[in-house]
Amino acid sequence: MLDTLITLVSFVFFTALVGAVTWWLTRKDDHGSSAGYFLAGRTLTGGYIAGSLMLTNLSTEQLVGLNGAAFNDGICVMAWEVIAAVSLVIMALFFLPRYLKSGIATVPEFLEDRHGDSTRAITSLIFIVAYAGILLPIILYTGAKGLTEILDIRGILGIGPLVIPADAPPEYLDFAGKAIIWGAVWLIGIIGSIYAIFGGLRTVAVSDTLNGFGLLVGGFLIVFYGLNAVSDEGIFKAVEIMQTENPEKFNSLGSSTSSVPFTTLFSGVLLLNLFYWCTNQQIIQRTFGASSLKEGQRGVLMAGALKVFAPLILVVPGLIAFNLYGDEIAGDAAYGKLVQAVLPTWLVGFFAAVIVGAILSSFNSALNSTATLFSLGVYKQMLHPDASEKRVIASGKVFGTILALVSMTMAPLLIGQKSIFGYLQKMNGLYFIPIFAVVLVGMLSKRAPKIAADIALIFGFVGISIFYFVIQPMSEDQSWDLNGDFYNYHFLGLMFLTLVGFQLVMAKAAPRETSYEQKDSGQVDMTSWPLAWPMGLGLIVIVLSIYIYFANPSVIWPLVPPRPLIDPANPDSVEQVRNVVLTYVRSVC
């Protein structure tokens, strides 16, 4: 009983502390104008941008989902984190200068400037539908799941441990478990809505930074205590034991059956990362609020540097949990189980508060971004062009409230989903790929016409939906089964090339009448950060070094023989490699 009380007191104290400090720092902010409410008055410095980028990303779909993926597939899932560093470099050096030059508040605004009203409208609607139906419910569900496991809500309520029937999957929940998830979803949703709807972007950014510090401290403490649970002879001995007992979990290249096959790093995985960090409104909105290009680049690249080390708290705990529990638990339960088992009682409450902060960060960031898209892209642009600033902001608050209620209702419907992180990445492809293809061509080509962008957006969204919801279900149990991450990500890569190619062909066959020339809005100081290029190149070198260090090419494909691939002393090795290549080509084709 005393342990439970200590946990709850530390949880409430830290949660209240963050809320109080955030209110104090933002109490005099401008919430009466669009720039003040949606862009923090363009006053964000590099530190706030980096902290907000990190914590918006490091939510429970990452902590629970990615550690669960590491539990199942090993260190290869770090691709989602370290490849993100490369994407952030591209964001800082290529995309951000073009965004800030236009003085925009949303990605659809850029597309309106590049193509026209219809492109902005289509993009805004795709973003809104995707955030409402995919992102927000997943954030709430994973947050509720992680929080209830870390705080052991069943134990606090005296319900008793979950008993899984012999014929039930590991994701099974009884009635009490489902009721707890519903309650946690609504609690998190209500608190997050208050932050986002009544505070605006600066409130989001400040609370993100405070919670981000706590998340980093707590995350590293879990790794420290977890490794000591593996071995009482020190953390290095623990790592050695883990590598010895489960060497297959420590290969950065993975295998064709893992959730991140190595070849997909050059197709769907890379593209999803590029969209997420370069064109995803939920993430990059805080960069639009940068006080200057210099501060924006510094914040983005600082976030890139942190992403290189993110696997320590987003992948390693999953590996530790696998070593401790093996197949006794489901992957998505690994993180909560580990936290509850290894952290001291008083730290459990602290870390639960940090988890709530991470959940609120992602939820209120997505909610704020969706309200921004609706207010500026639908309400102001399409419904009431003459609306005052006050009415525009009010429309965002009303829409945000409705959206929050819808998301809180939808989130518990995800109960029983086998792999939340895999589900999230798959669903993200629906809108990530078409929007990224249109934004990229819009920046690279001056002659691509509006009709090409509009068709690419609609065809991409519909085409990927047909593949996911029609073709893949039809192919189950067939010789040409197209289910699985390998095919998902390569299909996204193929669709991206198709959409880009179509727009470039249209730029030649039916170009716009005049070449597009981007105008400088003059709203942001466009002086670059002198260290942007050196730091960007340094991050890319570090990413390559990490992959090389953990690489074992012998398991990229199940039929590939151990190193060396061709053994001069064995004449049959050449024929073996030839057969492997032919098998790979046939499987892909």
UniProtKB/TrEMBL annotation:
One of its GO terms (cellular component) is plasma membrane. It is found in: Membrane. It is a multi-pass membrane protein. Keywords: Membrane, Transmembrane, Transmembrane helix. The chain crosses the membrane at residues 6-25, 37-58, 78-100, 121-141, 179-198, 210-227, 260-279, 300-325, 345-378, 398-415, 427-444, 451-471, 491-510, 531-550. PROSITE patterns: NA_SOLUT_SYMP_3 (PS50283). Its main location: membrane. InterPro entries: Na/Glc_symporter_sf, Na/solute_symporter. PANTHER family: SODIUM_GLUCOSE COTRANSPORTER 4, SOLUTE CARRIER FAMILY 5. This is Solute:sodium symporter family transporter. It comes from Blastopirellula marina.
